[in-house]
Structures are given as C-alpha cells and as structure tokens.
Amino acid sequence: MSDDLTTSSATQAPVHSGGHPVAWPLGLAGVAFVIIGSFLSWSYDGSILGDLSINFYPGSLQILAIILAVLSLLLLLIEKGPLAKRVGPWLDATLGLRSLGIVLTLFMVLVLVAITVESDGLINVNPGGYVSLVGAVLILVSSRLLPLRQLRDLSHAKLPGWLEILSIALMMAAVLFGAAYALGLTDAWNFVLCLVFIAAVIAALFRTGVMGWFGHVAQRHKKVLTLAAFAVAFFFPFTQNGSDANMSIATQVLIFAATAMGLNIVVGLAGLLDLGYIAFLGSGAYVAAMLSESAFATIDWHPPFPVVVLLGACVAATLGLIIGSPTLRVSGDYLAIVTLGFGEIFRLAMFNLDGTNGPLLTNGPNGIPGIPELEIGSFNFGDEHTLAGIELGRFSNYYFLLLLLIGFVILVFARLNDSRIGRGWVAIREDEKAAEAMGVNVFGLKLLAFAIGAFLAGLAGTIKAHQDVAISPDQYIFLESAFLLAAIVLGGMGTIAGVLLGATILKLLPEKLRFFSEYRLLLFGLLLVLMMRFRPEGLVASRRRQLEFHEDDEELAVAIESELVEEAK
Predict the structure, then answer these.
(1) Which of 280, 302, 366, 562 lies in disulfide reach of 316, CB 3.0 to 4.6 Å?
(2) pTM score
(3) 420 HSE (CA, 13 A, CB side)
C-alpha cells in the first residue's frame, strides 16, 4: 500500500490556531442535555415509536440518541481532554463531531415530526424531546466553534496483526447486528430513524479518518475481510428468529445483487450501456419454469436442477451473443437504444409464445405458476429445518443457495477484473479507438462481456423461478433494468463492494419503506441526482474512477496515481 494514500488528513481544511473558549463546555452541556432528555418522556402517546412515554426508562429511539451523545462525548475528549495527546493527533475529532451534530439534530427533528404525525399534533411531544433537541443543537454549535487541526497520515498507523484482524471482526460483527436490528423494525418511522442513526455513525467514522485507516487494514488483510464478510452473511439468517418476511427480502437482495454483478461486467468494466439486461435474468427463469414439474410447464422433460442451471445460463449467454453480434458495431446512446429495444422484444415475445400467436412455451400473459420447490437430492428447499435450535424456513434455504451463487459470481468478476481480459475491457471503456490501435480485439471482448454477463444473470434466474414459485412477463419490465443500472451507478461502477451496497440499498429500502411507496420513484430519482452532484464516482468508487472525477484536485490525483502504481507492481 502506498504511503501517499490520501486519508482525511490529505484533504484537511486549513488549520486554525484555536477555537472559541466556550466551544468545549458547550459540547459537554449538549451531551448532558441529550442524555437527560432521553431519560425523560418524549411522547404523550405510548402506542407509537416503541413507547417513548415512560420517564427514566428509555425506548429504542432514546437509546440510539444516547449512543450518539456518548460518541459525541468521546470525540470531545479526543479534541480536548484525557485522550487529546494520545489519540488527538491521529483522528479529526472536530469534523466527526460536526457530522454527529448535524445528523443528531436531524434525528431529533424527525422524531418530533414522527410524534406529531403519528399522534396528530405537536402538543403530544413531551418536554424530554425538546431537551434532547436543544442538546443536539448545542453539540452542533460546539462543533462549529472547535478548531480544525493538521493530522498525521493514518496510512502509517499500523497495529499488531492480531489487533487489525480483531478490528475487522468487530466491524463485521457491528454490520451483522446492525442489519439484524434494522430489519427487525416493522414501523416505517422507526426504520427511517434507525437509518439516520446508522448514517450518523458512518459519517463520523469517515470524517474522523477511522474508515480511512480501516481501508488500509482491509487492504493488508483482504482474505480475512472476505472471509469475515461471508461469515456475516452466513450467520445472518440465525439472527432473524425464523422471520420469513425478512429472509424473503434478503433472498431478493441476493438475486438482485448477483444480477447486478453480471451487469457490472458489461457496464462497469467494458463501459457498454445496456438498458435491457433484465431479459437475461428472465430467460434463465423461463428455462427453469418450462423444465420444472409445474402442471403448467410446457416442456415434458424434467432434468436435474444442476442441468437446468447450466441450460438456463447457456440460453441467456446465447441471447447475449445474439443481441451482441449485430449491435456492438454501435456504441454510446445508440447501443443503449438497441438494448432497450431488446428488453422490450423479450418481454413481448414472452407474451406471444402462448400457443396462439406462436409456439406454446410461456403460456403468454398467464405465465407459469405453481413451480414446485427446488429439490436437490433429498433436500427440499420448501421444508423447514432446525439448526442449532433455530428454525430456518424456505427463504433461509434459498438464501444459503443464493449465497453460494453470489460467491461464485464475485469470484468470476474478481478473476476477470484482474486478468488480461479485464484490462482489455478497461482499455475499451477508457478509449476504444486507442485500445483498438494497441491491438485489443475490441469486438471480441465486447461480445465476451455480453455473453459472460448474460450467463451470470441466467444462473440467478433459474433459482429465482423456484424461489418466486411463479413467473410472468410483467416481472421483466424496463424499470427493473433501470434499477439494476442504478445499483451499479449508485454503488460504484467496476467495484464489487459498491455494487453489493447499491443493490442492497435499492432493493431493501422500497421493501421496508412501503409507508412512502407513493413517493418511491421520486425518492429514487432524488437519490440519483444527489449522487451525480456530490459523488459521481459512486459510494464505493474504484481508484480509476476517483482519478477521473478528481483530476482537478492535484494532491488527491497524485495520491491515487501512486496507489495505482503500487497495485500494478
């Protein structure tokens, strides 16, 4: 890892010699107000938001506010206190405190709004809510009065190997329990406020530089991080107490993520804009449905599921070659229009293969319902199983299978990305003419990107058909392709973690925020606009794209180029 890697210190704001003398005590007062207010009643109505009406018995939201206040206190002690000399030179406590102050104030404002909406009136807000709000504002004001300082480069902060591995384990454990807690919330307002809390913690970790340091640790222990991530994913069903609702969402997220990872090859690596990618997922699903033992299946052949998986993936890859061969002579907007047309052609073809307008394959608009549960050997995925005293339902069974699938997809993507083929795709994405002049087989690599991406989507589709129990053409509309593309743009094109994060956000939030279902597309569009404005490279950007979007920042560009050179070595 390059020692020039930019952390929060590389983009540090100008250093101020001192701050206002009341800043630190003002912050302490704010922490005290938030904690005291959280032990008082926030709401007159005890039937909303998990009962915030009891004095000296904090509810779940009040506990979250206390945690944010304690984190603020910790940063204050790092800024000016017993931790200042040992930890202060390494962490930007002031910027972290500013993030916590802003988000904690937003958290309290949303709590008051939620109480007002749920109980039909601001009058139902009890004094404790206002006390905590005042405390949050005091913390925010204090953070603006504290000075900014020049920090040491965290890339040099190396702990013993076992401590760094322990930090990875603790971070992954926090992700596991945080996800379990958030998914366990059934009330929309509670879920939104939990997201605000999580955003506050993440923002503070980034602004203080902790996440920058953790990035270096992750680079030094990639295998440990990968193993820990899959361990977290494996243990997730055991935290859900047999909840089919949450596990259903989790399986949908994994299918969506596996499909998006295949599209990431086409869009993120090769730079080909595909707006009809959902057709490849649908082709795999239709192959599995037609070869299943459903009473409505149209093919009287029922091979074992491993054979069905290969057939579905190969059919999808063939469609990728069919659409790619004549259309990859065009590029940019024209390619997007052609692939959009292909997606619509697939959907309409599924409507017409009903035995009247064409061969009887898909049952037309009625689709193929009654698809039986997947069965491999003697293991039926529809049966409940008990492991370590915890009941695992059908969705948990499919979840573990999909976990294996996405592990395979990630392995394929990572190997291709690091291979000569991957470098050829990146060269085509950056400058097709220059790549062709250097001897890169542009057409062949483009075609290969379409075929491999379609193959991976077909794999996911074969499992999706059995998990959904039914299939119809209406499931494969253009909007689904748009969401897949948005997941890649939102998370970070060409990255693995970014696409997984983007897919999780875009699949999870609509399911948990059905309270805002009427405004889903509005929020979706607003999110993309904000991303394009403030972080066009995505939430988890690849170094190449960071360099592309930050060429004007000479210091950051040099740091990124240095790291790319080190990685190449």
Answers:
(1) 280
(2) 0.84
(3) 3
Nearest to 71 by CA among 197, 164, 172, 217: 197
CA–CA distance, 158 with 10 (Å, rounded to integer):
18
Question: Model confidence over 181-228: pLDDT tens digits?
Answer: 888 888 888 888 999 999 899 988 888 888 878 888 887 888 888 888
Q: For residue 4, what are the CA distances in angstroms to 15, 209, 561? A: 20, 15, 9
Question: Exposed e or buried b for every residue in 184-194, given b needs 16+ CB within 10 A?
Answer: ebeeebbbbbb
Contact indicator for 37, 131 with CB cutoff of 8 Å: yes
Kindly tell me the sign of the dihedral angle through the C-alpha atoms of 473, 474, 479, 484: negative
Instruction: Give the residue among 509, 331, 525, 504 at the shortest CA–CA distance from 432.
Output: 331
What single string gives the DSSP state of each residue in 62-93? HHHHHHHHHHHHHHHHHHSSTTTTTTTTTS-H
Q: Compute mean pLDDT per 10 residues along the chain, 569 residues long, and list them.
A: 36 47 90 95 89 90 95 90 75 88 94 90 90 95 83 66 85 87 84 91 87 82 86 88 83 93 91 90 94 89 92 94 80 84 91 87 91 86 80 88 93 90 89 87 90 94 93 90 90 87 86 73 80 79 58 48 47
* CA–CA separation, 519 and 554 (whole Å): 41
CA distances from 34 to 58, 123, 172, 409 (A): 12, 20, 29, 46
Q: Which of 286, 269, 26 is CA-nearest to residue 143?
A: 26
Predicted local distance difference test score (pLDDT) of residue 154: 63
Closest-CA residue to 477 (of 307, 298, 312, 279) = 279
d(CA 247, CA 236): 9
Length of the chain: 569
Within 184-329, residue ranges assigned H as helices are: 188-208, 210-220, 222-235, 244-264, 278-290, 305-327
Q: How many CA atoms lie within 13 A of 336 on its CB side?
A: 8
Q: Which residues pair with 354 in a beta bridge?
A: 360
404-409 long-range contacts, CB within 8 A, separation 24+ = 405/254, 405/258, 405/459, 405/460, 405/463, 406/254, 406/257, 406/258, 406/261, 407/230, 408/459, 409/258, 409/261, 409/262, 409/456, 409/459, 409/460
Q: Which residues, in sequence order, are CB contacts of 51 under 8 Å at separation 6+?
A: 59
Q: Residue with structure tokens 């107000």?
A: 33
Return the closest-CA partner of residue 63 out of 80, 74, 49, 84. Answer: 49
Q: Tell me which long-range contacts 380-386 makes (C-beta under 8 A, separation of at least 24).
A: 381/466
CB atoms within 10 A of CB 413: 24
CA-to-CA dists, residue 181 to 60, 194, 197, 199, angstroms? 11, 9, 12, 15
Query: Which value, to the nearest 10 degrees, does the dihedral of the CA atoms of residues 367, 372, 376, 379 take?
Result: 150
Task: Give me the residue label for tokens 């085509």.
Answer: 428
Side-chain half-sphere exposure of 183, counting CA atoms within 13 A: 26
Residue (of 241, 204, 190) closest to 59 by Cα position:
190
**3-class DSSP state for residue 318?**
helix
Q: Which two tokens stand for residue 337?
A: 């229009």
The pLDDT tens digits for 436-463 are 888 888 888 999 999 999 999 999 999 9
